[in-house]
Amino acid sequence: MKALYLEDSYLKEFDAKVESVSDGKFVVLDSTCFYPASGGQPHDTGKLIRKSDNKEFKVLFTGKFESNISHQIEPENELKEGDEVHGVINWERRYKLMRAHTATHIVSSLIHDKAGAKITGNQIALDKIRVDYELEEFDKQKFIEYIEQANQILKQDHKVTISYLSREEAEKDPDLAKLAMGLPPGLKELRIISIGEVDRQADGGTHAHSTKEVGDIEFIKCDNKGKKNRRVYYRLVD
Ligand SMILES: [Zn+2]
């Protein structure tokens, strides 16, 4: 199974063959550009069109199970192993999630570098983005300043590039240690997302080509989640 979005996050359509169908509705393809929910980035939706009769199947959810990407389709009990399909993702949804994901790396990087905080979680949604981090102090004003600084960086047209590093090399690189949980477990080779000279993170998600495509972000609110746990919400302006 080939995950086409890892190399080209702008791929919107693709041709594939059905490798397996479980419970009549969970479809694994030989390749896909549907992103499975992971790393704080929500799943793609879209459709699969069976080539033999042009019948359309909605893709309601995409998830990763035992290293396979599974597409939950509707209607059920029709698509069969061996069927040839044309897949189309809901690009409007995905593109907004990509822009949000790139913004998240900039914001996490600022919180990490300026406040010295480890990032404990990220959850991206279409209407808001949540970042959790560990820090003693709780200062809403500082966070509002980070958002302003992030907007300055986003405007600067930093290019987003993908590269690969062995785990051994990645472990020696302090830039890649922003997440409290460390590098993703179980991978020998890590995919590194670099945003110009501003940020580098080990990451399996999809990103915009440049920070300029993200546009502006705006602060929503801060929550105090206990002694050291801070949670902030922000969103894309459009
Ligand atoms: Zn990421």
Overall pLDDT metric: 93
Biggest β-sheet strands, sense, barrel: 6 strands, antiparallel, barrel
* Ions, cofactors and other bound molecules: zinc ion
Please state how the strands of the largest beta sheet are arranged side by side.
2-3-7-6-5-8
Helix content: 10-25%
Estimate the global geometry from the Cα principal axes: elongated
Category by helix and strand content: alpha+beta
Q: Give Rg in angstroms.
A: 19 Å
Order of helices and strands: EEEEEEEEHEEHEHEEEE
- Low-pLDDT runs: none
- What's the tally of helices? 3
The N- to C-terminal Cα distance equals: 34 Å
Tally of extended strands? 15
Q: Give the percentage of residues in beta strands.
A: 35-45%
In words, what does this structure look like?
- There is one protein chain.
- By secondary structure, the protein is an alpha+beta fold.
- Helices cover 19% and strands 39% of the residues.
- The chain is built from three helices and 15 strands.
- Strands 2-3-7-6-5-8 form a six-stranded antiparallel β-barrel. A four-stranded antiparallel β-sheet has the order 9-10-15-14, covered by helices on one side.
- A hairpin with a 2-residue loop joins strand 6 and strand 7.
- Bound molecules: zinc ion (ZN).
- The site of zinc ion (ZN) has 6 residues, from helix 1.
